[in-house]
């Protein structure tokens, strides 16, 4: 892979894999493929959801609310999730089968108690930046390939924002898995197409 391309591996954590608090169906099945893909890239970044215990996105933080209900917050509609990826817990750890020793950066997101953060670039308020765009730019990266969990949330939001910051962006669809809550997967692909994000199969890389 050319030196101006990087792989962005989104949230391959225990809580998003089978047996986890917010398991994505078939989530762990993509890990061997991600490991093989990562070997093709000199620049690899991993992300982790990294929430404080009483994060605003947790249903448990809102008495009377259940997981997967939605509420209105100052920055817009928020899905309420099962408590997941709490800082320093085993569920927040990267999956043990993930083998990418040359990854240069692990970016943690969702740290702020009152703002969710699906995207690796911008928090849900759409103004607070993680600094990842600057990291890639400073390394001469102009093209990003995304994989991980989940297609319709953190992968999609990260891909949209990668385009927002001017990167040529491709989602490797067979190296992702989706939650697909209320047809969220189809909606995500529609948004990605509109944003100019390319869909690709790993065999094409």
Low-confidence spans: none
Structural class: alpha/beta
| Strand percent estimate | 15-25%
Strand order of the largest sheet: 5-2-1-6-7-8
Give helix % range: 10-25%
Mean pLDDT: 96
Number of strands: 8
* Terminal-residue CA separation: 8 Å
Shape: globular
> How would a crystallographer describe the biggest sheet?
6 strands, parallel
Radius of gyration using CA atoms only: 16 Å
Tally of individual helices: 4
* Secondary-structure element string: EHEEEEHEHEHE
Characterize this entry briefly.
With 205 residues, the chain is of the alpha/beta class. It has four helices and eight strands; from the N terminus they run βαββββαβαβαβ. Helices cover 20% and strands 22% of the residues.
Write a structural description.
The chain has 4 helices and 8 strands. The model has no long low-confidence stretch (mean pLDDT 96). The protein has 205 residues and is an alpha/beta fold.
Provide key terms for this protein.
alpha/beta, globular, two-stranded antiparallel ribbon, 205 residues, 22% strand, six-stranded parallel β-sheet
């Amino acid at each position: 892979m050319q030196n101006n391309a990087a792989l962005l591996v989104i949230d391959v954590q225990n809580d998003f894999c089978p047996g986890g608090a917010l398991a994505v169906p078939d989530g762990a099945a993509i890990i061997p493929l991600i490991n093989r893909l990562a070997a093709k890239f000199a620049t690899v970044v991993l992300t982790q959801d990294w929430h404080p215990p009483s994060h605003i996105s947790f249903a448990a933080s809102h008495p009377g609310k259940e997981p997967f209900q939605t509420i209105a917050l100052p920055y817009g509609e928020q899905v309420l999730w099962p408590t997941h990826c709490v800082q320093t817990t085993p569920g927040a750890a990267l999956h043990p089968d993930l083998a990418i020793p040359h990854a240069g950066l692990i970016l943690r997101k969702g740290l702020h108690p009152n703002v969710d953060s699906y995207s690796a670039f911008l928090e849900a308020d759409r103004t607070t930046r993680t600094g990842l765009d600057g990291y890639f730019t400073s390394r001469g990266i102009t093209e990003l390939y995304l994989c991980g969990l989940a297609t319709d949330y953190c992968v999609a939001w990260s891909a949209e924002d990668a385009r927002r910051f001017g990167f040529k962006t491709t989602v490797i669809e067979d190296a992702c898995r989706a939650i697909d809550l209320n047809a969220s997967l189809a909606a995500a692909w529609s948004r990605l197409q509109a944003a100019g994000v390319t869909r690709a199969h790993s065999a094409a890389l």
